[in-house]
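As described in the Methods, two query proteins were run sequentially through the folding procedure within a single session, without resetting any intermediate state between them. The first query and its resulting structure tokens are shown here.
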Amino acid sequence: MKKEQILNLMNTVGPDLIEEADIQAPAKRRMPKAVRTGLIAACLCLALLGTAFAAANPEAVAALIDRLTVQVAQPGEAPGYSVTGGPMTKYSLSAFSPDLIAASESREGPVVILTFDTWGEVQAFLGENIPCSWPKEWDPQRYQVLLFHTGSEVLWGIDIYSVDISRQAEVYAEIRTELWRSENVSGGLGGLDGSTITQLDSYPMPNGSVAELVQVIDPETVYLDGTPTGIRPQQCSGYFMRDGILYTVTAYSPVPPQEDVEAQLKTVLDSFP
């Protein structure tokens, strides 16, 4: 292995690993070459083992990631659920594209709504410094980008929304700027009277994120040509954070069982880069 490769690997080893080794050289003395070589080898092994562990145990690694919390309303409370979590990233205004800033400055009200045909157009409008991503092979009719301002004064949030009818799913991303007054994730959904709301198991995604899943089955009956079918509409939503951006992915289905719409949602979650 070349010297440069060894040094690069050493840079990936955190100081906590070296501290845990509890190996210290005597004051004003260099560690013997054999000991230093052994320590380097041990640290390299730890780094490589960590990589292998992550590849073989994605669910265990996902458990270490900053997680969102879902709280479902208790009996006697208004139906619905809340989603909370740690701080969102506040992106500086200079990180966004000049076109986005110009659209914000030329606004006539507190909310600006723009429509784009492709994800590439949305990315260019956001700016190359904003790491927002979207599912692969997503086929929507359009993308909507919403710019939010407080009292028509400052740009504090950019949200992106899109529906793929062929997948019966929608994606909503929430980005916050440095002018946002809050700190932590806060969201959720209100249910209808009689809705059945269930928090499902967390879902480790291939990209390293963890989605918190919630199933909602509404009490309303689906009608076909004016005739009740006895089918209760249902949806399954997944919430996850990536680069300090909150994503909500929802799959819809008018047909039971629950496993179908849950699998439908997971297919979309798996397609995030």
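Immediately afterward, the second query was submitted; its sequence and tokens are:
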Amino acid sequence: MKKRRVLAILLASAMALSMGACGSDDKEEPPKTENEGGGNDTESQEVKATVIWRAFDDQFQSGFRIIMQNLEEEVGGISLDMQDAANDVSTAVSKLEAALTKGTEVVAICAPDRESTKTMMEKCDAEDVPAVFFNMEPMEETMEQYDNITYVGAQAKESGEMCAQALINYWNENTEIADKNGDGVLQLVILQGEIGQQDTMLRTQAYEDTLKAQGIEYEILAVDTANWDQAQALDKMNAWITAYGIDGIEGVLCNNDNMAMGAVQACLNNGYNNGDPEKFVPIVGIDSNIDALEAMKAGSLLGTVLNDRTNQSIAIMNVIKAVKEGKEITEEVVGVDCTVDGKYVWVPYVIVDDSNLDSILEQMSAISQE
């Protein structure tokens, strides 16, 4: 019964988010799978697919995997063999080689890093097995070189824009308390993910582009990497509080929620972000992990951006079926709100605010109980 309840929440949330992202008065339909509503026996034959995850123990990846596992039963016609790369390239490659040897028909890969995607794609192509990469985008030259490759993900730039916009909205709406030194300049710090990784670069650049586009006078006090990690982010934020004073930091933009929660903890340890609007450092993250959503509900985190794992999971599974059957990838085939651009399937981010916080928190809470 619990699994059915989780599936109902996931699909209802996916439908609601798709409606919000489309912003249209047209009649909306729930996310659908490619074989839903008919199809012949050949088309509905079960596809054997291997899914290689960067790391099972990562909070974002774990939630993503649970969603996909739950949807496997609901979707039907597909058998998923989940493999843990343990955030190690050699392990990921070894798992892929084993899957290819066993005769997997399609592989879906969230690689440990971008560089490894080339090697993994070479191995898939040598065995004429289609590859669907997700959450770690292959290099452009890799995408161009092969025909049997697809990427499903979200535009990193979009999440950076939304993240910065949340901070800008707070700054504009709370100027008297937000501008702690009264100089009219937003002094902020930035916590980055892995240096050189595409999401890190695009999200960080989008912060500045959005601040400039909105006409915000700002000063970046410091930028440093915390490698997507909460503990590292806590250490970096503590060092910045020591260097600039907690009132000297008027905003924190983080490339993901893990790092945002490290920054939140540093503020809490200094008696800030406990509900007093005069003692608040606005911090924004990306991913909508459950702890970030709960912190947002409690008022200790300003905001987060949903990396829509539910719709991405539906998209990945429908793309797996389509590439196995040799079908063209279209928005209709993908089955959720998205943009198909050649070999890329882009599922939009969703900014979390008062209108959808409760529903997204319910969705993530249901997943965490699995």
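The two ends are 11 Å apart (CA to CA). We note this only descriptively and draw no conclusion about the first query from it.
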